[in-house]
Design brief:
mainly beta; Immunoglobulin-like; 5-stranded antiparallel sheet; 4-stranded mixed sheet; globular
Length: 263
Amino acid sequence: MKVSSTGIKTSNVKVIVQDQPRPITLELRAEVAYAVRVTIADAKGQMQPYVDAAEDVTRLKGVATVSSVDGKPFRVLSVQGKPPVFATGAGDAAQASHQIAFDLPGAPCEQVPKYLLIETDRSDARLIDARVRHECARITPGIDIAEFRSNAGVIAPGDGAQFDIEVKKMDQNRIGSVTCADPRFTATLVGQKADGKSVLATIKLQPNAEVRGVFIVPVRLTALDAQGRPFMTQRPEPPKPGQPTRMMTLPAEADLLVYGKVE
């Protein structure tokens, strides 16, 4: 089981046993978490590691519980790069759990964030995220990246950050290039390793000298075939109510959201 970022990971392994007519399926489940967790109540009142606004856009506004796994006190430094608004508790004093209010934009569509970013003063969890489930925050990549975001951590001014991302179902294909749409950052493909099915790409993100504070930027990965030519992939289009699923032909590329802080 490959685990490259936080969240619940599942996998199935089929085992063939001698003298047994059918294979046995082993279901594996793992959770990867930072020392600090963020959870938000969903529409049913259950705590989830995401913002549940897919059916109710008013849930883009709410309260997140930010707690340390080991019970040690910590401080919340920012939410979406801005000073935190504390719903309850002792404000910005260090404590094991905080109630943080958030109010995310719901329009225009391109302004709806895909992740809620929270910064703490814990060295082992400086930045944590919660996925925003909303119609405008859908992600439909043209290649199978294992995660839609990567945590670059804290970067010193003038320095860069290096991270890995797994690209699934590549077979003989490879990542040809990486680019960053934000002109303040430069993305470079450092290298890649293949295991026959997937590719582990190593990427370096370099902020410009003037960049400071929390950031989240898209890094585009473009894939090539074994002969170095661009190729297209097909993906099912999310169906509308009462409509059949249609296949879309997309370029073999994906946008990975990379977040961190320059200080």
